[in-house]
Amino acid sequence: MTRSDLVELLAERFGQLTQRDADAAVKTILDAMSDALVRGHRIEIRGFGSFSINRRPPRLGRNPRTGESVHIPERRVPHFKPGKALREAVGAQPVESDERAPDS
Question: Which stretches does the entry tag as region Disordered (predicted)?
């Protein structure tokens, strides 16, 4: 599902919302979540999951083309942990092939 799919779904489900209003609502929510993560806050949505920031320590990597060692600096990366209800709902569904998944 893409952002535009979500906007369309909201506009269909709530008849009083126009496409523009639904887009503004989705944008506001995503912006607020992004701002909170940038500030280092944790976001918890009961029944869905939580978003937090994980720290990846600095390390030595290797350039695959030259074999040269490269210093990789510390990074902060977003992390999502699904809630129990979401894990159980996803786990209860039969496995279907994803059209976008590469062929193995």
Answer: 54-104
